[in-house]
Amino acid sequence: MIKKLIVFASILFSIVSWSQENTASPYSYYGLGEIKFKGTEDARSMGGIGIVADSIHFNLLNPASYSKIKFSTFAIGSTSTFSTFETNGNSEKAKRTNLNYLAVGLPIKKFGVSFGLMPYSAVGYKIESNSHNDADNSDRTKISTGNGNINRLFIGSSYAINKKLSFGFNINYNFGVVETEFIETIYAPVELQLRTRERNNSNINGFSFNTGVYYSRNLNQKLKLNSSFVYSPEATLVSENSRNIATIFYNIYGGEIISLPTQDIPVEDQKMKIPAKYTFGSGIGMDKKWFLGAEISFQENSKLRNRFKDISNATFENSTRISLGGYFVPKHDSFSNYFSRVIYRAGFRYENTGLVIRNESINDYGMTFGIGLPVGLSKINLGFEIGKKGTTSQGLVQENYFNLNIGLSLNDLWFRKREIN
User: Fold this and answer.
1) Distance separating alpha carbons of residues 106 and 122, to the nearest angstrom
2) Spatial contact of 275 and 32, defined as CB atoms under 8 Å apart
3) Do 401 and 384 contact (CB within 8 A), yes or no?
4) What is the pLDDT along the chain (421 residues), one digit of tens a residue?
5) Helix count (H) and strand count (E) of the chain?
6) Per-residue DSSP letters for 335-378?
7) Contact between 314 and 30 (Cβ < 8 Å)
8) pTM of the predicted structure, to 2 decimals
9) What structural domains does the chain harbor?
10) 367 burial via Cβ count (<10 Å: 0-12, 13-18, 19+)
């Protein structure tokens, strides 16, 4: 147990140097950024369904599942994303690696307790546009960049009302910093090139809450029905905003020169909404053999707003996500064949993100695959996801991405009373 706590403390300490650039999506420019947490690696490999809960699988998508775990659990997961961004005639590649979650779950008789840290959303983009002014025969370049994220520190509990029904909740503290910069450059036939630079800073924080119900029952001697419901009420985050303006010159021989003193511009703080979300899921299967389920989520994303101002060509609409997925285990108690004990997972998901740009809804599709490698009571979960987000219509960007997900779930009886000392 001491060794596990040392490992946990070391990983938690490393969060201090956690990179903020964990997305490269231009769509992270809007609203709260790109939503990052989509479940543990085993759930993501099944299309993101949060219906499976048992004694060794740590389900962070529904807090009602915490009472199902029977072993003290330490879970950590990360994702490497390989993206290709396409427009009409151009393409760019990007790679990002980020931590998905760091969590601990503890069983206490009919209760289950969990706490941890995860990124809620991320901002990371660089958008460049070019134009020519015939009046003065000058070229203009506009570059927008942004980075940062909103992290989520959570603690939750679950109570098993009986063997079939559990109820749980999470209390979340959301915090983070998002920095954006806008530079417009006028290229004229001189050695000094005029630039205008605007830097914005948003310090975001606030509490949120979600609650869930988990129900399971035997349909017959073999089949079991699992059902899940999670409700996240609307929450308000405070964005403390600041802005700095500067007129700068760029010397093509000596680099950037700030020609005038920078000026701080008063900007109003904003109250930003995390929209209410409802998730329903159900599925059937045989314990330790197979499972197949479906899940649907509705989120009131029409209430989203941008950090500083609304964008003229972008609006928000209510969003929907549909997920299908499941797993198969050839023979969970096989002693002769290790791969017969491996969990094989697959799934599909479709999501209307709620973002509308130039009258085009931004949709996200993904096919998922994965395996769970048993190591005693613990699991090493590997997941693979192939997806597409956005479109090249109306001059927009289409993201084609491949995600490699790796998760570790350590299970043990940390607080077992020893019979012999």
Assistant:
1) 29
2) no
3) no
4) 435 444 544 444 444 344 445 677 888 888 888 998 889 999 999 999 999 887 777 899 999 999 998 888 889 998 999 999 998 878 888 888 888 899 999 999 899 999 999 999 999 888 877 776 766 666 778 888 889 999 999 999 999 999 899 999 999 999 999 999 888 877 665 545 667 888 899 999 999 999 999 999 999 988 999 999 999 999 999 999 999 888 877 655 555 666 666 788 888 888 899 999 999 999 999 988 999 999 999 999 998 887 666 666 888 999 999 999 999 999 988 888 999 999 999 999 999 999 999 889 999 999 999 999 998 878 899 999 999 999 999 889 999 999 999 998 888 765 555 444 4
5) 2, 20
6) SS-GGGSSEEEEEEEEEEEEEEETTEEEEEEEEEEEEEEEETTE
7) yes
8) 0.87
9) 19-412 (2.40.160.60)
10) middle
Radius of gyration for the alpha carbons in the chain, expressed in angstroms and rounded: 24
DSSP 11-40: HHHHGGG--S-----GGGGSTT-EE-----
Pairwise CA distance, residues 178 & 39, whole Å: 23
